[in-house]
Amino acid sequence: MTSTWYCALLRGIGPGNPNMRNDKLRGVFDGLGFTGVGSVLSSGNIVFATEATDTTALEDRIQAALRGELGIGGGTIVRSRSELAALVGTEPFGELQHARETYLTATFLKKPLEPVPEPFPEPEELAVRMVGYDPDARAVLAVSDNTSSSSPDFMAWLERRFGKDITTRTWLTVHRILKRMPDHT
After folding, report:
1. Using alpha carbons only, what angle is made at residue 9 by residues 135 and 93, rounded to the nearest 5 degrees?
2. Count of alpha carbons within 13 angstroms of residue 48, beta-carbon side
3. What is the mean pLDDT of residues 147-173?
4. Which residues 6+ apart lie within 8 Å of 16 measured at CB?
5. Could you tell me the fold of the domain covering 4-83?
6. Where are the domains of the chain?
7. What is the pLDDT of residue 17?
8. Secretion signal: which residues (predicted)?
9. From residue 96, how far is each of 85, 104, 121, 155, 176 by CA, in Å?
10. Do the beta carbons of residue 141 and residue 134 sit within 8 Å?
11. pLDDT digits (tens, 9 = 90+) for 114-129
């Protein structure tokens, strides 16, 4: 059986907490028997390979180990390399570039958004434009104008609208994660 590459997107990771540092996080994944374990940035992005294919079971197993070994209860969302590659391949942001003033974001949902609302909801009074929803990656895509102070409000809006089983990454981070995952096993 061949291994598949995955990324665990961990919610609520603060690298200032000693139990949330990359070396400790990687140790938990190594202890679970995953191979190729690596971290991307210090915000809870762990890449790994495994023969397991049930992502819900992987999420539950990883979260139980993080809670049991490090006391981390934030949440775990797993995406395969192929899911992330397909998302990036759709070029949902077109010619827009991620920059200090304009963040391109992907908010990953633990469960599929069913049904997908039409029209897609827009946060009122926030400097954010919703790009849409990618059902295969289970990701809500948005462009935030960071010249205003609405970013924290946008994160709160996302939780109110889609629940707490979500985690947001910048588009730049999604690309960095994908680069750390080989396209072969």
Report:
1. 45
2. 26
3. 86
4. none
5. Alpha-Beta Plaits (3.30.70)
6. 4-83, 86-180
7. 76
8. none
9. 18, 8, 21, 21, 17
10. yes
11. 898 888 888 877 788 8
CA distances from 184 to 9, 39, 81, 82, 135 (A): 21, 18, 10, 10, 24
CA neighbor of 53 nearest in space, from 88, 111, 6, 113: 6
CB atoms inside a 10 Å sphere around CB 101: 9
Give the amino acid at 106.
A
Picking from 17-21, 34-38, 55-59, which range would have the lowest pLDDT averaged per residue?
17-21
CB 19 within 8 A of CB 38: no
Q: What letter represents residue 57's amino acid?
A: A
Choice among 22-26, 39-43, 170-174 with the minimum mean pLDDT: 39-43
Q: Are 65 and 28 a contacting pair, CB within 8 Å?
A: yes
